[in-house]
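debug: dumping io for the single-chain case to check the tokenizer round-trip. Nothing else runs in this session.
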Amino acid sequence: MNWNCKSTWKKAKQNTLWCLLGCSIGDFGTIFYFQNIEHTWSNFEVMGLAIINGLLTSIILETIILLKQMNFSSSLKTAFGMSFISMIGMEMAMNLTDLIFTGGAMLTWWVIPIMLIVGFFTPLPYNYWKLKKYNISCH
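debug: decoded output
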């Protein structure tokens, strides 16, 4: 496989950014919520819910974007089927980064950019490969 195709890298980066936006909304929103309420959840429980919510918001965002190109059923199937491995990798990388730097389930001004950078670059080679091999893109 040719890993030097600039146009494929550009498209893979665009797709990954959309995925990152969707995942971050649910993930960061969940962690932020639990940072600001009294609760008895462990950091791992909060992070688990953050991962699930990140996956859900990413699927919702991608489905909405795809509605411009296809019907709802096809949009949902495409959003779920084509990016799910990428989303899981992204979510795991972001939350592992949070765990390493803050102990987990803690958003700070300095850890968010690190989480976003790690979350972007972790699935990028997979997204490039899938786009190059199958010419499959979510956006």
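debug: round-trip ok. The radius of gyration is 16 Å.
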